[in-house]
Structure formats: structure tokens, C-alpha cells
Design brief:
Strand content: 15-25%
Shape: globular
Number of helices: 7
Largest sheet: 6 strands, parallel
Length: 176
């Protein structure tokens, strides 16, 4: 079954790594469907029913985005708030439409991994900083999977560093 990749990047065309990951996924259209929120909703007016129908078609969903300001891009938060509604995603009469679906995060992160540690500059791990996603997906009874994070892009955005990420990203996607 195909994996739905919901890509959230406010400037995907000028992205270095997220754009490269999407290019690689596009080489396997039988395996991956990329759904770019900023391209589809430049005005950020989300078609909730269309998004819910899309989600219902897939058993594996990956949210791909750059991690910045210790969070996801605002459009992803808006999408979660509007799409995962009471009566559809949760609630006694919802049928839990996302229940059992494998859901994961794939994040590009500018800072080195060592900075995201109890003794690092930012005091918290990415696992701790993404706990809100884990709780959200558990709440709607989805099967939350370990995330993929690729660090250090602010210090090294060389072609070699980017290409190294591609192999790791595809391995992650293939092992969901």
C-alpha cells in the first residue's frame, strides 16, 4: 500500500533538503503520494472534507517538515486542528477514522543533534519536543511510529551531507 507524505514547507521550492527528499520520493510514485500543503493551500484555507477523505485512503502517513522554533510550521498545526475533528478523528461517535494507521514525522533540523540534549544548548531532545505529536496521534488511536530526524543543516548544507540524508530517509520510509 502507498504511503501518504504530507509535506509542509513554507518555501519548498527553495528548500535544500525537503525538496531533495520529495524529488527522491517522486521517483517511486507507486509507493508514495506527496501532498504539499503550502502548494495546495497558499491561502491556508483548508478543505477539511477533502483532507479527511485523503487520509482515509492510506494506512501509512508521514508528516515531512522542517523543525524550527522548536516546533512544526504553523500550517501543520492549523491542519491538525481543522482536520482531526471531533466526530471524525475522535469522540464516542467518530469511528476513529485514523485508528490503526501508521503515522510518523520526518524532520529536517538545522541544529546539530548534540544541542538537543539535557546538557545541550536547547536542554531538550527532539523526542521531548515532539511529544505533543505523539500524544495527539495516540489520542486519535493512530499507530505512532518513531520519527526520522536529520540534523546539522545550518552547519553543513553540502551536497554530500544532503545526499547522505536521502539514503537514510528512504530507508526510514521503506521500514515504516
Amino acid at each position: 500500500m502507498k504511503t501518504l507524505v504530507i509535506a509542509i514547507h513554507p518555501d519548498a521550492e527553495n528548500s535544500i533538503i525537503n525538496k531533495r527528499w520529495m524529488e527522491e520520493l517522486n521517483k517511486q510514485p507507486e509507493q508514495y503520494h506527496i501532498h504539499q500543503l503550502h502548494a495546495i493551500y497558499p491561502d491556508e484555507k483548508i478543505d477539511v472534507v477533502a483532507e479527511q477523505k485523503l487520509i482515509e485512503q492510506y494506512d501509512k502517513i508521514v508528516f515531512q517538515f522542517p523543525f524550527y522554533w522548536f516546533n512544526c510550521p504553523p500550517l501543520l498545526k492549523k491542519w491538525l486542528d481543522e482536520v482531526f475533528t471531533y466526530g471524525w478523528a475522535y469522540g464516542s461517535k467518530s469511528g476513529y477514522k485514523v485508528s490503526g494507521k501508521k503515522i510518523a514525522l520526518a524532520m529536517s533540523i538545522g541544529i546539530d543533534e548534540e544541542e538537543y540534549a539535557a546538557n545541550g544548548k536547547y536542554k531538550y531532545t527532539i523526542k521531548e519536543l515532539t511529544r505533543n505529536f505523539e500524544l495527539t496521534f495516540e489520542y486519535i488511536k493512530a499507530d505512532y511510529q518513531p520519527f526520522f530526524a536529520y540534523y546539522g543543516l545550518e552547519q553543513d548544507s553540502s551536497e554530500e551531507w544532503i545526499e547522505k540524508s536521502v539514503t537514510q530517509y528512504i530507508d526510514f520510509m521503506n521500514n515504516l
